[in-house]
Amino acid sequence: MSLDADTHALLTRIADALDRLAPPPSVPSDIHAADGFIWNAEHGRLDPVKKINRVDMNLLKGVELQRKTLLENTQRFARGFPANNALLWGARGMGKSSLVKAIHAEINAETPGALALVEMHREDMESLPRLLNVLRDGDRRAIVFCDDLSFDHQDNAYKSLKAVLDGGIEGRPDNVLFYATSNRRHLMARDMIENERSTAINPSEAVEEKVSLSDRFGLWLGFHTCDQDTYFAMIEGYVAAYDIPVSGDELIARAREWSVTRGSRSGRVAWQFIQDLAGEFGKKVA
Q1: Beta strands 86-90 and 115-119: pairing type?
Q2: Which secondary structure element, helix H or strand E, spans residue 273, and what is its range?
Q3: What rounded mean pLDDT belongs to the chain?
Q4: What stretch of H or E contains 39?
Q5: In the sheet that 176-182 helps form, which strands lie side by side, from edge to edge?
Q6: CA-CA to 84 of 20 to 30 Å: which in 8, 167, 188, 215?
Q7: Other CB atoms within 10 A of residue 76 CB
Q8: What is the pTM assigned to this prediction?
Q9: What confidence category does residue 261 fall into, taking pLDDT thresholds of 50, 70 and 90?
Q10: DSSP structural state of residue 27
Protein backbone atom coordinates (compact mmCIF):
# COMPACT_ATOMS: atom_id res chain seq x y z
CA MET A 1 0.00 0.00 0.00
CA SER A 2 1.50 3.31 -1.05
CA LEU A 3 1.47 6.31 1.27
CA ASP A 4 0.61 9.80 0.26
CA ALA A 5 3.21 12.52 0.74
CA ASP A 6 1.59 13.99 3.87
CA THR A 7 1.36 10.62 5.65
CA HIS A 8 4.94 9.77 4.75
CA ALA A 9 6.16 13.11 6.07
CA LEU A 10 4.20 12.60 9.32
CA LEU A 11 5.63 9.12 9.88
CA THR A 12 9.13 10.43 9.18
CA ARG A 13 8.74 13.15 11.82
CA ILE A 14 7.44 10.59 14.35
CA ALA A 15 10.40 8.28 13.67
CA ASP A 16 12.85 11.18 14.07
CA ALA A 17 11.20 12.19 17.36
CA LEU A 18 11.47 8.63 18.68
CA ASP A 19 15.16 8.54 17.74
CA ARG A 20 15.77 11.71 19.74
CA LEU A 21 13.92 10.31 22.76
CA ALA A 22 15.77 7.01 22.73
CA PRO A 23 18.72 6.79 25.14
CA PRO A 24 22.16 6.95 23.55
CA PRO A 25 23.89 3.61 23.05
CA SER A 26 25.89 2.57 26.10
CA VAL A 27 29.63 3.17 25.90
CA PRO A 28 31.77 0.20 26.99
CA SER A 29 33.51 0.88 30.31
CA ASP A 30 37.29 1.13 30.23
CA ILE A 31 38.55 -0.11 33.61
CA HIS A 32 42.00 1.33 32.80
CA ALA A 33 40.72 4.86 32.12
CA ALA A 34 41.35 5.99 35.73
CA ASP A 35 42.10 4.73 39.23
CA GLY A 36 38.68 5.73 40.53
CA PHE A 37 35.16 5.37 39.13
CA ILE A 38 31.53 6.04 40.00
CA TRP A 39 29.10 3.31 39.02
CA ASN A 40 26.41 4.83 36.80
CA ALA A 41 23.56 2.40 37.39
CA GLU A 42 21.16 4.17 35.03
CA HIS A 43 23.41 3.69 32.00
CA GLY A 44 25.28 0.62 33.23
CA ARG A 45 28.75 2.08 32.94
CA LEU A 46 31.75 3.25 34.96
CA ASP A 47 32.26 7.02 35.04
CA PRO A 48 35.95 7.89 35.61
CA VAL A 49 36.92 10.18 38.50
CA LYS A 50 39.79 12.50 37.62
CA LYS A 51 40.87 13.13 41.21
CA ILE A 52 39.81 11.05 44.20
CA ASN A 53 39.04 13.10 47.32
CA ARG A 54 41.24 11.67 50.09
CA VAL A 55 43.83 12.35 52.78
CA ASP A 56 47.22 10.73 53.33
CA MET A 57 47.01 7.45 55.25
CA ASN A 58 49.56 8.59 57.85
CA LEU A 59 47.29 11.48 58.85
CA LEU A 60 44.56 9.12 60.05
CA LYS A 61 45.09 8.87 63.81
CA GLY A 62 43.43 6.62 66.36
CA VAL A 63 42.75 3.85 63.83
CA GLU A 64 46.18 2.24 63.66
CA LEU A 65 44.95 -1.34 64.18
CA GLN A 66 42.14 -0.96 61.66
CA ARG A 67 44.59 0.60 59.19
CA LYS A 68 47.09 -2.25 59.55
CA THR A 69 44.42 -4.95 59.16
CA LEU A 70 42.71 -3.41 56.13
CA LEU A 71 46.02 -2.57 54.44
CA GLU A 72 47.26 -6.15 54.76
CA ASN A 73 43.97 -7.51 53.43
CA THR A 74 44.08 -5.15 50.46
CA GLN A 75 47.73 -5.87 49.71
CA ARG A 76 47.01 -9.60 49.55
CA PHE A 77 44.14 -8.96 47.14
CA ALA A 78 46.26 -6.67 44.94
CA ARG A 79 48.92 -9.39 44.71
CA GLY A 80 46.40 -11.96 43.54
CA PHE A 81 45.96 -13.85 46.81
CA PRO A 82 42.71 -14.58 48.71
CA ALA A 83 41.27 -11.69 50.74
CA ASN A 84 38.05 -10.85 52.57
CA ASN A 85 35.22 -8.44 51.91
CA ALA A 86 35.30 -5.82 54.66
CA LEU A 87 32.70 -3.98 56.71
CA LEU A 88 33.94 -0.85 58.48
CA TRP A 89 31.33 0.06 61.09
CA GLY A 90 31.02 2.39 64.04
CA ALA A 91 31.11 6.02 65.14
CA ARG A 92 30.47 8.80 62.65
CA GLY A 93 33.42 10.85 61.44
CA MET A 94 36.16 8.47 62.58
CA GLY A 95 37.72 7.92 59.17
CA LYS A 96 35.99 4.82 57.81
CA SER A 97 35.62 5.99 54.21
CA SER A 98 38.84 8.01 54.42
CA LEU A 99 40.73 4.85 55.34
CA VAL A 100 39.42 2.92 52.33
CA LYS A 101 40.44 5.70 49.93
CA ALA A 102 43.82 6.21 51.63
CA ILE A 103 44.68 2.52 51.43
CA HIS A 104 43.68 2.41 47.77
CA ALA A 105 46.12 5.27 47.16
CA GLU A 106 48.84 3.49 49.15
CA ILE A 107 48.48 0.30 47.10
CA ASN A 108 48.66 2.19 43.82
CA ALA A 109 51.66 4.15 45.04
CA GLU A 110 53.45 0.84 45.61
CA THR A 111 52.28 -0.65 42.28
CA PRO A 112 50.84 1.98 39.90
CA GLY A 113 47.51 0.95 38.44
CA ALA A 114 47.23 -2.17 40.61
CA LEU A 115 43.71 -1.44 41.87
CA ALA A 116 40.63 0.39 40.67
CA LEU A 117 38.26 1.87 43.24
CA VAL A 118 34.62 1.80 42.16
CA GLU A 119 32.11 3.67 44.30
CA MET A 120 28.47 2.70 44.11
CA HIS A 121 25.65 4.53 45.85
CA ARG A 122 23.57 2.72 48.42
CA GLU A 123 20.37 3.33 46.44
CA ASP A 124 21.89 1.49 43.45
CA MET A 125 22.55 -1.69 45.42
CA GLU A 126 20.06 -3.72 43.38
CA SER A 127 22.27 -3.11 40.33
CA LEU A 128 25.31 -4.71 42.02
CA PRO A 129 25.10 -7.91 39.93
CA ARG A 130 25.24 -5.79 36.75
CA LEU A 131 28.30 -3.95 38.06
CA LEU A 132 30.04 -7.22 38.84
CA ASN A 133 29.38 -8.43 35.30
CA VAL A 134 31.11 -5.32 33.98
CA LEU A 135 34.10 -5.85 36.28
CA ARG A 136 34.23 -9.61 35.72
CA ASP A 137 34.98 -9.03 32.04
CA GLY A 138 37.84 -6.65 32.87
CA ASP A 139 41.46 -7.56 33.43
CA ARG A 140 42.02 -5.33 36.44
CA ARG A 141 41.48 -5.91 40.13
CA ALA A 142 38.87 -3.64 41.67
CA ILE A 143 37.40 -2.71 45.04
CA VAL A 144 33.67 -1.94 44.98
CA PHE A 145 33.08 0.61 47.71
CA CYS A 146 29.73 1.60 49.23
CA ASP A 147 29.78 4.37 51.82
CA ASP A 148 27.19 4.65 54.60
CA LEU A 149 25.46 1.36 53.80
CA SER A 150 22.32 0.48 55.75
CA PHE A 151 18.85 -0.95 55.17
CA ASP A 152 15.48 0.16 56.47
CA HIS A 153 11.92 -1.15 56.62
CA GLN A 154 10.56 -2.70 53.41
CA ASP A 155 14.00 -2.51 51.83
CA ASN A 156 14.88 -5.65 49.92
CA ALA A 157 18.02 -4.35 48.23
CA TYR A 158 20.09 -6.23 50.81
CA LYS A 159 19.22 -9.46 49.00
CA SER A 160 21.35 -8.44 46.01
CA LEU A 161 24.33 -7.82 48.28
CA LYS A 162 23.76 -11.02 50.24
CA ALA A 163 23.79 -13.16 47.10
CA VAL A 164 26.97 -11.52 45.86
CA LEU A 165 28.88 -11.83 49.14
CA ASP A 166 28.28 -15.47 49.82
CA GLY A 167 25.85 -17.05 47.41
CA GLY A 168 24.55 -17.34 43.90
CA ILE A 169 25.79 -19.61 41.15
CA GLU A 170 28.43 -17.23 39.84
CA GLY A 171 29.54 -15.77 43.16
CA ARG A 172 31.88 -12.83 43.47
CA PRO A 173 34.45 -12.47 40.67
CA ASP A 174 38.01 -13.29 41.72
CA ASN A 175 39.14 -9.81 40.67
CA VAL A 176 36.63 -7.94 42.88
CA LEU A 177 36.42 -7.16 46.60
CA PHE A 178 33.53 -5.39 48.34
CA TYR A 179 34.23 -2.79 51.05
CA ALA A 180 31.40 -1.00 52.86
CA THR A 181 31.12 1.51 55.68
CA SER A 182 28.18 1.84 58.03
CA ASN A 183 27.23 3.40 61.34
CA ARG A 184 25.31 0.19 62.07
CA ARG A 185 27.05 -3.05 62.97
CA HIS A 186 24.26 -5.19 61.51
CA LEU A 187 23.39 -2.77 58.67
CA MET A 188 19.85 -2.35 59.95
CA ALA A 189 18.24 -0.10 62.55
CA ARG A 190 17.77 -1.44 66.10
CA ASP A 191 14.04 -0.63 66.04
CA MET A 192 13.76 -2.64 62.83
CA ILE A 193 15.33 -5.66 64.54
CA GLU A 194 13.08 -5.32 67.59
CA ASN A 195 9.96 -4.92 65.43
CA GLU A 196 10.78 -8.08 63.49
CA ARG A 197 11.27 -10.01 66.73
CA SER A 198 8.08 -8.78 68.36
CA THR A 199 5.80 -9.63 65.44
CA ALA A 200 7.27 -12.97 64.39
CA ILE A 201 6.16 -16.46 65.35
CA ASN A 202 9.81 -17.41 65.72
CA PRO A 203 11.64 -14.18 66.71
CA SER A 204 15.14 -15.56 66.18
CA GLU A 205 14.38 -16.67 62.63
CA ALA A 206 12.57 -13.45 61.74
CA VAL A 207 15.70 -11.31 61.73
CA GLU A 208 18.29 -13.96 60.94
CA GLU A 209 18.20 -13.31 57.21
CA LYS A 210 18.88 -9.59 57.58
CA VAL A 211 21.25 -9.72 60.53
CA SER A 212 23.27 -12.45 58.84
CA LEU A 213 24.15 -10.04 56.05
CA SER A 214 26.91 -8.47 58.12
CA ASP A 215 28.20 -11.95 58.97
CA ARG A 216 28.98 -12.47 55.30
CA PHE A 217 31.74 -9.89 55.47
CA GLY A 218 34.89 -11.80 56.36
CA LEU A 219 36.47 -8.74 57.93
CA TRP A 220 34.76 -6.55 60.56
CA LEU A 221 36.54 -3.40 61.66
CA GLY A 222 35.02 -1.33 64.47
CA PHE A 223 35.55 2.43 64.77
CA HIS A 224 34.84 4.12 68.08
CA THR A 225 34.68 7.70 69.32
CA CYS A 226 38.10 9.14 70.07
CA ASP A 227 39.37 10.46 73.37
CA GLN A 228 40.82 13.93 73.85
CA ASP A 229 44.46 12.91 73.37
CA THR A 230 43.69 11.21 70.05
CA TYR A 231 41.72 14.25 68.91
CA PHE A 232 44.69 16.53 69.69
CA ALA A 233 47.04 14.10 67.90
CA MET A 234 44.86 14.39 64.79
CA ILE A 235 45.01 18.18 64.96
CA GLU A 236 48.79 18.27 65.47
CA GLY A 237 49.34 15.84 62.58
CA TYR A 238 47.36 18.03 60.19
CA VAL A 239 49.07 21.22 61.40
CA ALA A 240 52.52 19.71 60.79
CA ALA A 241 51.56 18.27 57.40
CA TYR A 242 50.16 21.54 56.09
CA ASP A 243 52.65 23.83 57.83
CA ILE A 244 50.04 25.90 59.65
CA PRO A 245 51.86 28.43 61.89
CA VAL A 246 50.14 27.77 65.22
CA SER A 247 51.18 25.34 67.93
CA GLY A 248 51.47 24.71 71.66
CA ASP A 249 48.93 25.97 74.12
CA GLU A 250 47.22 28.21 71.57
CA LEU A 251 46.56 25.28 69.23
CA ILE A 252 45.30 23.04 72.03
CA ALA A 253 43.02 25.75 73.41
CA ARG A 254 41.51 26.52 70.01
CA ALA A 255 41.09 22.84 69.15
CA ARG A 256 39.35 22.22 72.49
CA GLU A 257 37.03 25.17 71.97
CA TRP A 258 36.14 23.95 68.48
CA SER A 259 35.20 20.48 69.75
CA VAL A 260 33.10 21.96 72.56
CA THR A 261 31.11 24.10 70.11
CA ARG A 262 30.51 21.02 67.94
CA GLY A 263 29.61 18.84 70.90
CA SER A 264 31.87 15.98 69.82
CA ARG A 265 35.40 14.83 69.05
CA SER A 266 36.14 12.86 65.88
CA GLY A 267 38.36 12.83 62.83
CA ARG A 268 35.73 14.78 60.91
CA VAL A 269 35.55 17.47 63.60
CA ALA A 270 39.36 17.68 63.60
CA TRP A 271 39.43 18.08 59.81
CA GLN A 272 36.75 20.78 59.91
CA PHE A 273 38.83 22.66 62.50
CA ILE A 274 41.91 22.38 60.25
CA GLN A 275 39.93 23.71 57.29
CA ASP A 276 38.98 26.75 59.33
CA LEU A 277 42.53 27.21 60.66
CA ALA A 278 44.15 26.78 57.25
CA GLY A 279 41.79 29.32 55.73
CA GLU A 280 42.65 31.80 58.46
CA PHE A 281 46.39 31.48 57.74
CA GLY A 282 46.07 31.24 53.97
CA LYS A 283 47.25 27.63 53.70
CA LYS A 284 46.00 25.12 51.13
CA VAL A 285 45.03 21.65 52.33
CA ALA A 286 44.31 19.97 48.99
Answers
A1: unpaired
A2: helix 267-280
A3: 84
A4: strand 36-40
A5: 45-49, 36-40, 115-119, 141-146, 176-182, 86-90, 219-223
A6: 188
A7: 14
A8: 0.81
A9: very high
A10: P
Q: Is 2 exposed, middle or buried (0-12, 13-18, 19+ CB in 10 A)?
A: exposed
What pLDDT is attached to residue 137? 82
Phi, psi torsion values for 137, nearest 5 degrees = -80, -10
Longest dimension (CA), the chain: 93
Q: How many other CB atoms are there within 10 angstroms of residue 45's CB atom?
A: 17
DSSP 151: B
Is residue 82 pLDDT above 60, yes or no? yes
The amino acid sitting at 164 is: V
Burial of 176 (0-12, 13-18, 19+ CB in 10 A): buried
Pair 27, 44: CB distance under 8 Å: no
34-48 pLDDT, tens digit each:
999 999 999 999 999
Length of the chain: 286
Cα–Cα distance between 172 and 180 in angstroms, integer? 15
Q: Tell me the CB-side half-sphere exposure of residue 233, using CA atoms within 13 A.
A: 12
Question: Within a 10 A sphere around the Cβ of 114, how many other Cβ atoms?
Answer: 18
Inter-residue contact 95 to 226 (CB < 8 Å):
no
- Contact predicate 89/182, CB 8 Å: yes
CA distance 256 to 225: 16
Task: For 173-237, give the DSSP string.
Answer: -TTEEEEEEESSTTSB-HHHHHHHHHH-SSHHHHHHHHHHHHHT-SEEEEE----HHHHHHHHHH
